[in-house]
Amino acid sequence: MFKWNLTAAAVALAFAGPVPAQDVDLAKIREEMKQMKEADEQRMRALEKRLKDAEAKAGKAEQSAAKAEAAAAGSASRGGENAFNPAVSLILQGTYANTSQDPNTFQITGFVPSGGEVGPPKRSFGLGETELTISGNIDPYFRVQMTVALTPENEAEIEEAYFQTLTLGRGLSLKGGRFLSSIGYLNDIHQHAWDFQDVPLPYKAFLGGALKQDGVQLKWVAPMPVFFELGTEFSSGDQFPGSDRNKNGVGGSSIFGHIGGDIGPSYAWRTGLSYLRFSPLDRGYEDVDSMGGAVSNSFTGTAKLWIVDGVLKWAPNGNASHTNFKLQGEYFRSRQDGTLTYDDSAGSAVFGAISDSFNTDQSGWYAQGVWQFMPRWRVGYRYDTVRYGTVSNGIVNNGLGPAAGDFPVLANHSPTRNTAMLDWSPSEFSRLRLQFASDKSRIGVTDNQVFLQYIYSLGAHGAHKF
Amino acid sequence: MKWLKYFLASLMLAVGAPAAAALNIFACEPEWGALARELGGDKASIYVATTALQDPHRIEARPSLIARARTADLVVCTGAELEIGWMPLVQRQSGNARIQAGQPGYFEAASQLVLIEIPQRVDRSMGDVHAAGNPHVHLDPSNIARVAAALAERMAQLDPGDAAQYRARARAFLERWQQASARWEKEGAPLKGMPIVVYHKDMTYLIRWLGLREVGALEPKPGVPPTASHLSELLTRLGRDPAQAVVRAAYADPRAAQWLSERAKIPALMLPFTVGGSERAKDLYGLFDDTLSRLLAVQK
Questions:
Q1: For residues A314 and A245, what is the distance between their CA atoms, to the nearest angstrom?
Q2: Nearest-angstrom CA–CA distance, B148 and B163
Q3: Average pLDDT of span B39-44
């Protein structure tokens, strides 16, 4: 503004210059100058306004250009050859373990060995299972998911590989392939989402860690305001408590039902009942007789399992980000009826192969609470046990030769364990955990365990089940 | 056995009672529940999955949500990955074919809008970033208007018998909303340029709409809870570039905001963020009325 005024004044002076000063009324000049100045000022204001308008317009154009660009960028990144890439996620896990007993001697005394990888991790530094999960929709009708576990022994295991229907409707969904069974509560939760480093004893003793099967599952959710689902599964039954049967038909089946809901905004719960029936055929396990000779035992018959599960979660007003508490427990009842064959021909060769009836009625339960007392930090405690119950071994009872001492794995023992953990999760995708356990799984010994564990999740944001 | 009685009673209710409303709507967040109520009137029965006191990022696929999704005709969510941690599971486990992604029964508000803050590079070292852009779209009235128009069309498509009514209600709502927006813009004019500290990047659309200025965030990175070192760094920064308030959503933990407020000597301000977040935020109008008056109160 200042500059323009100066210019105006200069112009005025220039015009005024040639006019003889004495002949002209100074007041008139002043008046003229004032008028010119005002006119200039008006012109300036108009110019400034035009500039501003133009700027605003340009700005808007810029904004809409940016919007168009953003939209274009969005659609561009959605196109191309890799547009249909499935969701990929990778879980890295590892432990540092300190155990007072040799992990290689682990057994759950009193219970038929499940053959699963249920022992503590190896001592010192050790890699856990690395899980690679790929999932996506095949078409409007099916979704598939595959999880490969890369074991620290450098083997790849197909943990899960299944299809799931999307549009069956009426609350129905069908799953097929290899999948974690939906029985109980913890069974279909992946290792990286567990609240402790390992599963409770009843899962180890009765399901070999978790029931994972090749088969089909049909689930139905009732059209009610309260959650109510029913499901059934049919499988080859070649996982514990079943065995590889090399037979047509169904080797294992299960039915389960779950109900759940909210109690006010702060509590949510779910409870359920499951029943499994398996028909193992020559399901074997190794043992040693009283002289230290190797014995092969095998069982043929039926194995049944009932599970009652329950979980209650609390978060103030349902907002779990600051504090929350999770209480969970399950009760297991296992019955096996059939024939046991004892064969020491490869060891002491005293009795050879002999068979008689074998019946067990055993149970187990666990209860655990995990409390997030501040963001990122959680503390948890778990008590788990499996009860010996009754084991009726016809070979011993009917005096066929081998005595109770020739079945050391089945010695009368009810394992218990106390576990405490503290974990820190810098974000949703990383977790460090410290766990202490006093494990009385083996008869007559206590294994004091300290685990330091890390869990990292890379890639697609997985949704975790309740 | 009391629970069994309740259970059987609810079973009978569910099976016996004929559906009074034509359209069963499952709203992921309270703002979309409130919008659906404006558009649907008595033709829609609405279940809101979350409350204003819950963090929409951190919801669990609770059994109650699966049960409600099972009977829904239409799911109205924000989208843009806001509900990625729970909604896909709810959809799959519900066994309801109508509400799967790609079906007309699944409506995403964010797909109707142009999002801001679309990251150039998506990497979790930047925190919990959303690849599609900032999903907290509802605190700009023009976004609500755009979503309202699209949602009414979707409701009309799913329930053609009542289509005329949805469209009429949408027209009436948009007219009233237009007037209200003009009033808010006038009332909010003095807020232009007001410097604020936010908790999470969930006020960005409000900031853009009112022309506020974001000086900093309590979260060091989106989704990462405030740390002591970040807060003290923020405090130093506020010494050079002061803010007028520390703003947080009703669901956010108040302590970090309180800490900064005491030390920087600026008020800690709770905004309802969504419908139900405060006494006055009973509906969408109340939400904006209350948000503006709370911000204006700081300036006085």
A1: 45
A2: 14
A3: 94
pLDDT of residue A61: 43
CA angle at A231 for the pair A227 and A234, rounded to the nearest 5°:
165
pLDDT, block means (10 residues), chain A with 466 residues: 44 41 54 62 57 47 43 48 85 96 95 91 94 93 95 94 94 97 96 96 96 96 96 95 93 97 96 97 94 95 98 96 96 98 94 96 98 96 97 94 94 97 93 98 96 94 82
Chain A, nearest residue to B57 by Cα = A321
Which value, to the nearest 10 degrees, does the dihedral of the CA atoms of residues B176, B181, B187, B188 take?
160
Whole-angstrom CA distances from B166 to A11, A382, B106 are 69, 54, 18
Degrees (nearest 5) of the Cα angle B214, B220, B221? 90
Q: Which of A67, A313, A317 sits opposite B53 (nearest CB)?
A: A317
Distance CA A266, CA A313 (A): 8
Strongest mean pLDDT among A214-218, B122-126, B224-228 = A214-218
Radius of gyration for the alpha carbons in chain B, expressed in angstroms and rounded: 20
Which of A261, A319, A466 comes nearest B251 by C-beta?
A319
User: CB pairs below 8 Å between A and B: how many?
Assistant: 154
Distance CA B47, CA B250 (A): 21
What angle in degrees, to the nearest 10, is found between the helix axes of B254-264 and B228-240? 40
Asked whether the beta carbons of residue A464 and residue B118 sit closer than 8 angstroms, the reply is no
Please, what's the b/e burial string for A265-289 (b: 16 or more CB within 10 A of its CB; e: otherwise)? eeebbbbbebbbbbbbbebebebbb
Residue-wise pLDDT tens digits, B86-113? 999 999 999 999 999 989 999 999 999 9
User: Which chain A residues touch B251 with a CB distance below 8 Å?
Assistant: 319, 321
d(CA A92, CA A456): 5
In the block, which residue shows the tokens 């105006």? A8
pLDDT value of residue A40? 58
Which of B66, B67, B224 is facing A427, going by the closest CB pair? B224
Cis peptide before B225 (omega within 30 of 0): no
Q: Could you tell me if B124 lies within 8 Å of chain A, comparing CB atoms?
A: yes
Q: Quick one: how far is CA A282 from the chain centroid? A: 34
Q: In what order do the strands lie in the sheet with B268-271?
A: B213-217, B195-198, B245-249, B268-271
Smallest CA–CA distance, residue B152 to chain A, in Å, is 24
DSSP one-letter code for B234:
H
- Residue A9: the pLDDT is 44
Lowest mean pLDDT among A38-52, B47-61, B138-152, B156-170: A38-52
Task: Spell out a b/e string for A393-426, using b for 16 or more CB atoms within 10 Å of the CB, else e.
Answer: bebbeeeeebeeebbebbeebbbbbebebebebe
Per-residue model confidence (pLDDT) at position A463: 78
Could you tell me the two tokens for B279?
A: 């006494």
Question: Distance (Å, rounded) from C-alpha B287 to C-alpha B274?
Answer: 6
Whether A322 sits inside 8 A of B253 (CB atoms) is yes
- When CB atoms are compared, the residue of A167, A219, A229 closest to B97 is A167
Q: Is B232:B222 a contact under the CB 8 Å cutoff? A: no
pLDDT of residue A18: 40
Are the beta carbons of A326 and A311 closer than 8 angstroms? yes
Q: Is A427 close to B70, i.e. CB distance below 8 A?
A: no
Q: Pick from B100, B133, B225: which is nearest to A167 by CB?
A: B100
Chain B, 37 to 76: residues with Cβ < 8 Å from chain A are: 50-51, 53-55, 58, 60-64, 66-68, 70-71
pLDDT number for residue A44: 54
